[in-house]
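FAQ
Q: What does a multi-component entry look like?
A: The components come first, one per line:
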Amino acid sequence: EAGVAQSPRYKIIEKRQSVAFWCNPISGHATLYWYQQILGQGPKLLIQFQNNGVVDDSQLPKDRFSAERLKGVDSTLKIQPAKLEDSAVYLCASSFDGRGYEQYFGPGTRLTVT
Amino acid sequence: KQEVTQIPAALSVPEGENLVLNCSFTDSAIYNLQWFRQDPGKGLTSLLLIQSSQREQTSGRLNASLDKSSGRSTLYIAASQPGDSATYLCAVRYSGSARQLTFGSGTQLTVLP
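Then the predicted structure of the entire assembly, as tokens:
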């Protein structure tokens, strides 16, 4: 069974530029999560999708971050414009559903904003 | 506020030693608790998941325990190996409709050959 795929793996941009990350969850998983992990900290949930609807985006900085999950499969996370403090690893995870099933994580995208 | 704390932040042990990693959480109303391993530059790998009704789970050399009343979980690693070197993260899924994972900051483990 293929795992959660993410791309790109690494990205370096200058502040005020925009960037987009892509995630393909495990086939059949209805729930998709985006996390932000700052160096030395645990992952923090940014947004949770159930199929193509948003369950929780309370910690997403909506003035600069946006995410979508068209057709309830792949998802993209966008930052526009980026700030220095956005430097982090962005992790995508999926689970069968959002009621407590085990989450499976992708390898992450390491973003550096200079 | 529902928080998860892991102490120590870093731990170094000689190969072959048995060790315990600690995780504490502020609210005993949890749905389950999960231990993850994270290697440098990699995503998270799930090690063990303990449901709220369980006291422990075992997988190979790993044993995780859960004590809801005291708000604590431990991950026991037997006969540690250099390949066990990684960051170990504890995550709690609190009860409620959201049931999202709340992560600790992790313990960075180094096993010296």
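Q: Is there any commentary attached?
A: Sometimes. For this entry: Chain A has a mean pLDDT of 93.
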